[in-house]
Amino acid sequence: MAEQSRTRWRALGSRWLGLGLAVVISIVTLGLGVAGQLTLYISPESIWFACAGAVVVLAGAIWSCTLPLGAEVDHGHDHGLDDADPDAVASPRRALKLAGTISAGIVASGVVVAALVLPPASLSVELAMSRADAAGTLFAGADTPTLGVADTTTFGVGEWSSVFATATRPEAYDGSTVTLTGFVTPGDEADAVNLTRMIITHCVIDAQPAAVPVSVAAGESGSGEFATGQWIEVTGTVTADSDGSLRVVPTSVVAIDEPGDPYEY
């Protein structure tokens, strides 16, 4: 009886670590997709693939319910364990393998349950600031501005950040009007802040910050109209300074709530 109980618990644990975790992740994925919040984690182009994969997993889970408990670990042979030395079966290697499996299962279960319980959230401002120093220049659309034929009316923070960093003829952009949305991070100059946006290529793992300088005074920490982390919408004009650097001189700066889709792609 005790052996049957242990066998049953092993089968339940194996099914949870395999099928159970996959089903929970699939449900979370479909729920975020329906709610329009999956873009907090992956790019819009990948949503259909993720949701299709989740549907396939759920279909497989339904089919697997027709299998008896423990069938997923039954290969149709016993690997010769019946003839094995009992001391070898209970070797330290097997104990270490069991401990590793249990530890990995606990960690994986914790991550999956957290994904199910915790509300979706965008990447933090602190993360954007920490990656700003390590991130290289974003070259989104940089090849077009170099040729001087870019339609800047469609540019977001990512494209303008590339232009500000790489333009060989900054005067060509002097006077361009912009309307940009992002959050405030500290600027390099005392009379400016950076308008920052996280740029995603595939998912949040590869997210990198892009920023453009805006000539507005930053608020004091914890107060002020434009404190670090505040989302704002800036309407203004790109201005080329005498040293060839570019900045946005705003005609209107409005504090806003974080948008439903806080990233650019």
Task: Please provide a brief summary of the model.
The chain is elongated. By secondary structure, the chain is an alpha+beta fold.
Description:
This is Repeat protein (TIGR03943 family). The chain crosses the membrane at residues 16-35, 47-69, 98-118. Residues 168-265 form the DUF1980 domain. Keywords: Membrane, Transmembrane, Transmembrane helix. Pfam families: DUF1980_C. The protein is α+β, with helices and mostly antiparallel strands and 265 residues long. The chain folds into 2 domains: 2-117, no CATH class; 125-264, Beta Barrel (OB fold (Dihydrolipoamide Acetyltransferase, E2P)), CATH 2.40.50. 40% of the residues lie in helices and 17% in strands. It contains 7 helices and 6 strands; from the N terminus they run H-H-H-H-H-H-H-E-E-E-E-E-E. The chain has helices at residues 2-35, 47-64, 86-89, 92-117, 125-132, 143-147, 157-166; strands at residues 177-186, 193-199, 208-214, 231-240, 246-255, 263-264. Strands 1, 2, 3, 4, 5 and 6 form a 6-stranded mixed beta sheet that branches. Strand 4 (231-240) and strand 5 form a beta hairpin. Helix 1 (2-35) runs antiparallel to helix 2. The chain is elongated and about 80 Å long. The N and C termini lie far apart (58 Å). Mean pLDDT is 75; it is low at 77-86, 139-147 and 218-224.
